Amino acid sequence: MNLQDKKIAVLLSGGVDSSVVLYQLASQGLQPDCFYIKIGPEEEEEWDCSSEEDLEMATSVAHKYGCRLEVIDCHREYWDQVTRYTMDKVRAGLTPNPDVMCNRLIKFGAFDQKRGHDYDLIATGHYARTEEEEIVNSKSSNSKLTWLCTSPDPVKDQTDFLAQIYDWQLRKALFPIGHMMKDEVRQIAEREHLAPAHRRDSQGICFLGKINYNDYIRRYLGEQPGDVIELETGKRIGEHRGLWFHTIGQRKGLGFGGGPWFVVKKDVHLNILYVSHGYDPQTAYKQDFKMRDFHALTLPLEECLTFACKETAEPEGQSAAKVTFKIRHTSDYFRATIEPLPDGEYIVHSEQPIHGVAPGQFCVVYDAQHHRCFGSGEITL
To answer: N or C: which end of the chain has fewer CB within 10 A?
Structure first.
């Protein structure tokens, strides 16, 4: 893609990845406009938020390359949209992913409404790539398809966090470091003496820095104690402080003696947390599960499955399509086939049992080589 005639906005977070993004563009003779999206807690909040340091770092990097930096306040949009989504899901006993919705609703959503609409491309520090494919015999003015593709760094790949963005957002997205390994990005930052070169990667929620996920949930939902029951025996083994603090498949942090214990089920109506005893009990695994509300990035899933059949030389037919998928942010991809159902849902038939499949998680679907990302749907059981 020729970037010289494009108007580019760079989202600087204050971290090493987005800083190297600006370096990459500046080294091509470009001088994009830079933006820092502010979504941290209100000033009266007592949470330990790193937003002030983030802004200082972003300002330093923008100044180094002679680019202006503008702060865009998306605080209200984040708390109204992403937080509401998260709390509604956890209150219902589900396992949501606020970072996924932050990309769709804030980075490529609210920002575009406020300032991004003035730009051809929005550059971020995501570890992902895009590929364009010509549409044969297209009668449309848009004769190309844009695919979201994985990064060569399997540990840092972030396509799972981007699998809910809209097609128009994907077409505007630019990932200048998506073809690189994390170590390479660090080396560039050190060589170019970028201020965030030695900053640790954020382990918090999206833009929220050091905020702990359970503290984030407790701030809005409080605590709601209930019984913890052993699934196999019906024996009460303790008390939980709220179902929303636990996820299916969880082992660490339960605090019950005689373990290990695994979370295997939630009863939202009775406020009961069911656990199973032992090392990787079978109750903690699933091989077949449903997903609903599939969000397609480039083409409808049915067309992607037909494409997948051709790629793997399988007999044509959607239920025979070989794909790969992941249900959480790891480097692990699992092989499966996907069966469409009449009601618009799908059944994922994994080739192996998967640990910790939880309702509300996103199942992110890729081609057989886990190169192109088709999109994602919400897991139901």
So the answer is: N
